[in-house]
Design goal:
The chain folds into two domains: 170 residues, no CATH class; 56 residues, no CATH class. The chain is an alpha+beta fold and 244 residues long. The chain is built from five helices and eleven strands. It has a ten-stranded antiparallel β-barrel.
């Protein structure tokens, strides 16, 4: 981790402007320090595969019912039990048990820095493959983010339960959505913390869908970082002078 992050310390070494840190960001990120983050993905156990195959088979046989049933569930949470899912109640309970064993897998270490600008707006600067998040600027007065696409407005706070894809976590979310004659663009960013209060999360997603329903872009990422002092990268210590 140190070997990856150290060369990037220089990237964020520019002086930051003194300003009050917005509470919605400061509750999770300390300003003007490097925080060790990690892009993560959720990896389900292989035992789930046979249950997923059965549900997919049932969906192909009865697609209209499946679409309607999917509307009764929450995003990222297993669908409510129904015999038409292709699983017995016992199999469904086993599916939930294995779903509960999913894990986070780190795929890239990235530096994070919360920086305030002279215009009063704030950036969550993230390196590596998560650099797209750095293009968003938060305006604490208007309580919105602005990206190259437009204004991301505050929506309902996140309060996900343990069965959600990322497990139990809570936080704040902003969303941009624009419909044109060519299709729909959606962009979301959320920041929060895990249920055990050990880690912070920055969740980002960008989607472009054509008017025919084809997904032209579907780019999402989750960046996880230790909360508090545990996540702050200490500056390298200068070597002691050699004795003559």
């Amino acid at each position: 981790m140190k070997r990856i992050l150290s060369p990037l310390l220089v990237v964020f070494s520019a002086s930051a402007f003194a300003a009050d840190v917005p509470k919605l960001l400061g509750d999770y990120l300390t300003a003007n320090v490097i925080i060790k983050g990690e892009i993560v993905v959720v990896v389900p156990p292989p035992e789930l595969d046979k249950y997923i195959a059965k549900v997919e088979g049932a969906a192909r046989k009865n697609p209209e019912w499946f679409r309607e049933h999917a509307k009764t569930g929450k995003p990222g949470v297993p669908l409510p039990f129904d015999e038409k899912l292709g699983l017995t109640k016992e199999e469904y309970d086993e599916y939930l048990k294995f779903w509960g064993k999913r894990e986070f897998k780190g795929i890239e270490a990235v530096p994070i820095r919360l920086i305030g600008g002279s215009d009063g707006r704030w950036n969550i600067n993230i390196g590596g493959a998560a650099q797209a998040i750095s293009t968003l600027k938060y305006d604490p007065k208007a309580d919105h983010f602005r990206s190259p696409n437009g204004e991301l407005k505050r929506i309902e706070d996140v309060d996900a339960d343990a069965n959600s894809t990322l497990g139990a976590w809570s936080g704040h979310e902003w969303k941009f959505e624009e419909k044109t004659g060519l299709g729909t663009t959606k962009e979301n960013i959320a920041i929060g913390k895990t249920g055990d209060k050990k880690f912070g999360l920055v969740v980002y997603r960008l989607q472009e869908i054509s008017d025919q329903g084809t997904r032209l872009i579907d780019r999402g990422m989750v960046v996880r970082f230790p909360l508090g002092a545990a996540g702050i990268v200490k500056p390298p210590t200068a070597p002691a002078p050699k004795k003559k």
